[in-house]
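Summary for the steering committee. One of the milestones for this cycle was to obtain a three-dimensional model of the protein with glucose-6-phosphate bound, which we needed before selecting residues for the alanine scan. The sequence and ligand used are listed below.
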Amino acid sequence: MALFNQTKSYQALQAHFEQIKDAHMRDMFAQDSDRFNKFSAKACGIELDYSKNRISQETLGLLFDLARETGVEAKRDGMFAGDKINTSEDRAVLHTALRNQSGEPVLVDGQDVMPEVQAVLAKMKQFVAEVHDGSRKGYTGEQFTDVLAIGIGGSFLGPKIMTEALKPYRVDGLKVHFVANVDGAHIHDVLAELNVETTLVLMSSKSFGTQETLKNTQTAKAWFLDNGGTQDDVAKHFMCVSSNVKAATDFGIAEENIFPMWDWVGGRYSLWSAIGLPIALALGFDNFEALLSGAYEMDEHFKTAPLEENLPAILGMLGVWYINFFGAQSHVLLPYDHYLRGFPAYVQQLDMESNGKFATPTGDYLDYATGPVIWGGEGTNGQHAFHQLIHQGKVLIPADFMLPLNSQHEVTNHHAMLASNCFGQTQALMQGKSLDEVKAEFAGKGLTDAEIEQVAPQKVFEGNKPSNTLLFDQITPRTLGNLIALYEHKVFVQGIVWGINSFDQWGVELGKVLGNDVLAKLENTDLPLDNDSSTNALIERFRNR
Ligand code: G6Q
């Protein structure tokens, strides 16, 4: 298939871009009172207002032509069907099978994976019930009160952030703590709050080979043994989730304490597997199932809705419009919801690790931009910090605003104030404030013309800054499942358009290899320093600390 910028639709978009690039959204709204209805869509309880974008109906038509010409629909169907679309690792990509509630088989190499998926879900359900009802106990016969969840990257961010996002659903009597960083401060602080007798350690590592996770698990085990537990008690307290059962049993985890996963689940797409066990422990299995249902609902929408009404396709193609035509290099996520404050960090890994690529699966280097920098934070806090640059900086930063219409905690009129800020920001970004408007405001304030000339430009807002607004009823496990799957599929759409493999992550490998080499040199001062002068000096500083 031709590279994206060699397609007919790309050429058509390029010509169209020249015509529309300077059009102001303020005029677009003035000329068409029906703009919101034309550029909004609803699915799975999410209403997407994308009318505040620098697009016309022609733009959208051309963007969907591009999606079709680059094969988005066929490749989407291939992903759901278990095709090995992760070609560099020769793997299928089936996080969707983990939440498949259709009753239909999903085949990998001719084998239906659904029975195994269901067996693991059943094992998780039973385990969660036993921990909650106290029938699974620690070595002294005490009920578990705490779970120490150890993992990093895809084996950490999803469980941690979604447990945080669903705080109002947490069960009483069991606290889940997360440790990811190999910085000893992290595990030190968490262990200081725990009691060995009532703590269950759940180690999550798909590969069972991740340095940070293995180290933190060893430290947790040493803590357990130093504080009254014995080697024989380890089996009662240490569980793990991994696709590498052999490495886990070699490490000393009892086979019945291993929750398996599969090579066709990518780390950053794995919260739907047993990697999501901390979520189920924190919220109850019913709520975990509701999360899966929400994602399944979005899968069905993505699979069946025409691109023109397809939320992931719309978000994905708008992203392509700004990245490849307007030259936007970042995209900001702004949840106006305190519980969703971690969501931008989740999507950051999902998007940047998936689409931060510069070569195609067939070995061509790309001469166009791919995944943007994803960043963000909770509203309204960002308005008092980084929004300045979005409003008046020299770079274009498309934004996704997110707002639940109902708060988990209606406290006086807090929620109306939150919503007013969210909507007000999208309006300000879109319409801006012209020089004439600023000058008119100065009239009658006694300033000289020279003073006005000097001050006025600093108060101008260019506007024409694009944003999407996603509204939903409330943050529930189901809605959260909808939202996560929405962004997963948005990333998929973009990866297909750009012709890259969104499901490998070779870019993280070099640092790991060099890190191991440096560690050997830090710990063995007899080893010669044969790196570049900067790295040698840094190692020396550490050796001499
Ligand atoms: C995600 C990445 C990465 C991975 C971690 C942890 O897609 O591959 O973030 O999840 O490196 O890996 P393990 O689960 O194998 O420990």
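Key point for the committee: The CA atoms of residues 401 and 469 lie 5 Å apart.
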